Amino acid sequence: MNQLRAELLKIRSTRTTVGLLLGLITLALLFTILTCTLSPGSQLFTEQDQISLLSFGSIAGVFSALAGVMLFTSEYRFGTIRPTSLFNPNRTRLFATKISAGVLSGLVFGVIGEGLVFSIGLMILKIRGVSILMSGANMTELLVGAIIGTALWGAIGVALGAVVPNQVGAVIALLAWGFVVENLVFGFLPKIGRFLPVHAADAMMGNVQVKLLPGNVGTLVVVGWAVVLSLVGVVLLKRRDVN
Amino acid sequence: MPFVVQSDSLSKRYGEVLAVDDLTFAIEAGTITGFLGPNGAGKSTTLRMLLGLAKPTSGSATVFGSPYDQLETPALRIGAVLEATDFHPGRSGRDHLRMLSRAVGLPDARVDEVLSLVELQDAAKRRVKGYSLGMRQRLGLAAALLGNPDLLVLDEPANGLDPEGVRWLRDFLRDFASGGRTVLISSHVLAEIAQTVDQVLIINHGRLVVESTLDELTARVGAAVRVQSPKLDELADALKREGIVITRSNDHALLAQGTTREHVGDIALAAGVAIYELVSESSSLEEIFLDLTSEETSS
Questions:
Q1: Which residues, including other chains, have CB under 8 Å from residue B32's CB and lie 6 or more apart?
Q2: Yes or no, beta carbons of B88 and A74 under 8 Å apart
Q3: Which ipTM was obtained for this model?
Q4: Which residue from A minimizes the CA distance to B14?
């Protein structure tokens, strides 16, 4: 618990996480306000349209994963991995602590990101007189799925940072995977692509897109990715010398 | 009493390079030990193995009888500074210490204590990127002192310090060790720590060259006589005939090892060679150090 408090202080005591949060808030507000205000009513008539619109908050997963990546890569970049390892020489425990911190910060990103998109999006739609077609169950699935998914992205980010300690390398790998590789695979081979983490996380929010996995399977797949990457990360962390 | 630090046939190989080669030494409590060697000799690698950051290829390194990572909360017994730059530049000095102290359950009050101890309390809330190198060295030291340790391990702590900083560090370490605590301090410049340490471990190419007290080290090479003459070659021959080992110093003088001024003067008189200068000279520690490490290099 002490070590988790230490990790959370690390996150709070630099401007990196605050910067990522501000980036998320700006992007979420900009997208929601512009889309909900400017989209022609015909694009908001179906439940599917509304789910797609309000699931934009899952973009918080990118920010959460970036914050997670920083938890390890910043330590290597600035050399704080040395004092950190001296104060916490058990690498498995260090890894577990960082994963927990990544999940907690991911929850915050998820609540803020999806919370903003959802609340402001619904408000604008109501002001515009668009009738909300989503059922309560769908709304809950979308909200919970987006927030849990974002938290899991925090864990995936931490694990990726342990696998690729070079900060630039890890960030490029994350963004290239999320924005290019997965979309290409899903575009050409959706039956395989839906098992990849971004699309599995999308599935967690309910019926966002056809061709995706069912929500509960999506959750299991994302957890599976987080676990596998974590196992690789912890093995490498234990093997690798701190130089 | 068991040794505080013990290295037993410790070796570390990186690919083709044997960075540390069968290193065996032990350090008793209450001593200040200088861990010396030229850059690249294997000092930092050895310290990292002692502190559980790097795994030995073979052999073992223990602190207080156990490998570092098997001690219960080792940061409360051992304080270490490995680099002067191990800080997030955007984090304040105080927050850097707070995050470390929290990890081992120490209160924030301890953070303020160590900040005062290293005289950084006024800069505590500033971001580290605004710190001078000397301030960063002190912040590193403050982190090492958080757990009120019995052993302090410092890797090149005087690097980049101005003379005032070096003196501050020396006084601080003397103070620290006066209470029976132990210090292991590495350096590539013997002069930097000669006034601080009780004993030295000198390594070169990963191997132990010397393990002794400073006094023994000085006595081992002994005194020399420095002599200048217009006929250096003749004088050198005469000294050699008497079995005296000589070396030529850079400024066209001879250094006669293990002898006295009187003896050299008598030999010069007998050889009919004029003498312009005749001075007893203790070999500086730095010369001894350079001799020991260069001998090793050439062997």
A1: B173, B174, B177, B182, B183, B185, B196, B197, B198, B199
A2: yes
A3: 0.89
A4: A241
